[in-house]
Specification:
heterodimer; A: 254 residues; alpha+beta; Jelly Rolls; five-stranded antiparallel β-sheet; 12 strands; 17% helix; B: 248 residues; 2 domains; 13 strands
């Protein structure tokens, strides 16, 4: 399955652009990749903002030969040393989260208007039909700084879409460098379903949306006889079961 | 604008790994189970492994695959390998372990550093003492008792591995970062009239309010001593976990 899909990718590439044809070759020799995708965030967040960083080293060039083209810029930043073009970084956010803000951290000393640019892309599951989320972020020639878009309110659907950060460099002389991209998101509770799971928590109940979320998540099955008993006091014993299931608590050795 | 089709096709190889991580098990039907719950840990100790293949050689030179699933620089340049560190913000890193294979008999070893930099990757400082392998085959060395408070918004964290030899006697297998969740220190002023700064649960109730999990019981109060119903519990839990499913 995977091989045939990669084959499809190769075929599509060959028909569209010769430049991009280097990608399948490099992708098939991961041992020599300069920058693999790194460990992704065990970060989950709450209804307040949570920040996830995608560092420069986690971006991969799509349209250059992957070996020998990358050099460290100042600090932990990176820049293309030979070819211009796009770097891509897939990102992982919890499904249902609201993406609120994107920040591009860079170093840019180019005096001739050559800059580093960031697009946040949403694609379908086959990587087609990509469209940008929010505005393009563009560096300015003021050294090491950041530029951000605080106006996003995008709901992440990690099942129906794949997401990627696309960074474009317009100079390869070491004057424009990528440091990282910071994604900030909030968790969100699903909208209420149309029908009720419990007889005593109808769709009109103020807690309906939240009780249904617990049911769908396997955290509760109710109090028996098709009811949830929403007004029953919670004992500390019941509290222990709710919390342990909800958090998937485990301890060392398991 | 460049062709999104070309971009999308090129992206597919990486998309495979994305989908493995993101896709819920089973056939989708509404409503879906909650999205994957990434391991986030508790106030107990959680550990995240950074295997060798998550380390990058920043000069683009070749990497060799050594003993088992380890890696080492495959030429004589003695470069360093780097990796990002992803642990939840607000946590405290308590331990870092370096796993290695070292068969060198001449004191050439694998070293591991944890760096904390600013958002532009500048002004990096060591967040712990350097870990160094010894010449005793495949083993590990660790530093316990660390107290590195993680701030993902203001700081960039990087693992840096260096090698004392490129003759196939020094291998990086990976690093293991252990951390604990922590509740934020209490703020200076109280949000609720009935939970003053002197209240024994002030810190925790403020944490719930700051995280959007509770807005209190009305009239500027939280009602800390009121019994909790199962219905109220559902609201707390669903908001705290951000429970969400895919709507088809």
């Amino acid at each position: 399955m995977r091989i045939s899909q990669v084959g499809l990718s190769i075929a599509l590439l060959a028909t569209v652009t010769a430049l991009a044809a280097a990608q399948p070759t490099s992708a098939s020799s991961p041992a020599n990749r300069g920058m693999p995708s790194a460990v992704k965030a065990p970060d989950y967040g709450t209804a307040s903002l949570t920040h996830v960083r995608v560092s420069a080293m986690e971006f991969s060039p799509l349209n250059t030969n992957l070996s020998g083209d990358w050099y460290p810029g100042p600090g932990r930043t990176r820049y293309p040393s030979l070819y211009l073009g796009s770097w891509e970084g897939p990102f992982h956010l919890p499904g249902g989260a609201l993406l609120k803000r994107v920040e591009l951290d860079y170093c840019d000393t180019n005096a001739s208007g050559h800059h580093v640019q960031l697009n946040v892309l949403e694609c379908d599951n086959q990587g087609q039909g990509c469209s940008p989320i929010g505005a393009q972020l563009v560096s300015t020639s003021n050294g090491c700084a950041f530029v951000a878009d605080d106006t996003l309110n995008y709901r992440v659907d990690a099942y129906h879409h794949l997401y990627s950060l696309e960074v474009d460099f317009t100079a390869d002389d070491g004057t424009v460098a990528l440091a990282s991209v910071i994604l900030s998101y909030q968790l969100d509770v699903s909208p209420a379903p149309a029908t009720a799971s419990f007889a005593d928590v109808p769709t009109s109940d103020p807690a309906f949306q939240y009780v249904e979320a617990l049911v769908s998540s396997g955290i509760t099955a109710g109090c028996g006889s098709g009811n949830y008993c929403p007004d029953a006091p919670l004992t500390r014993r019941q509290m222990a079961v709710f919390l342990s299931k909800a958090l998937g608590l485990h301890w060392a050795g398991f | 604008m460049k062709s999104r089709t070309a971009f999308g096709a090129a992206l597919f190889a990486s998309a495979v790994s994305v989908r493995v991580f993101a896709q819920p098990s089973g056939v989708p039907s509404a409503p879906q189970p909650p999205k994957e719950m990434p391991e986030y840990g508790t106030t107990g100790t959680s550990s995240v492994r950074i295997p060798a293949w998550d380390f990058s050689r920043m000069d683009g030179g070749p990497l060799g695959v050594g003993v088992g699933i380890s890696r080492f620089p495959a030429d004589s340049a003695l470069p360093f390998l780097v990796s990002s560190v992803h642990v939840p913000g607000g946590t405290r890193i308590t331990r870092v372990e370096l796993d290695y294979c070292d068969d060198s008999s001449s004191g050439k070893h694998v070293k591991l550093e944890l760096l904390q930099c600013d958002n532009q990757g500048q002004n990096c400082a060591d967040a712990m003492s350097e870990l160094v392998s010894s010449s005793n085959g495949c083993s590990f060395v660790a530093q316990s008792g660390l107290s590195v408070h993680v701030n993902n918004y203001n700081n960039m964290y990087t693992m840096v591995a260096t090698f004392g030899a490129v003759d196939g006697t020094n291998y990086l297998v990976g690093a293991i970062v252990s951390y604990q969740l922590e509740v934020s220190p209490p703020p200076g002023t109280a949000t609720f009239n009935d939970v003053p700064t002197s209240h024994p649960f002030f810190q925790f109730i403020e944490a719930l309010a700051a995280s959007g999990i509770t807005g209190g019981c009305g009239s500027g109060n939280y009602c800390p001593d009121a019994p909790l119903t199962r219905g109220q519990m559902a609201v707390f839990l669903a908001k705290a976990l951000g429970l969400y499913w895919v709507n088809q």
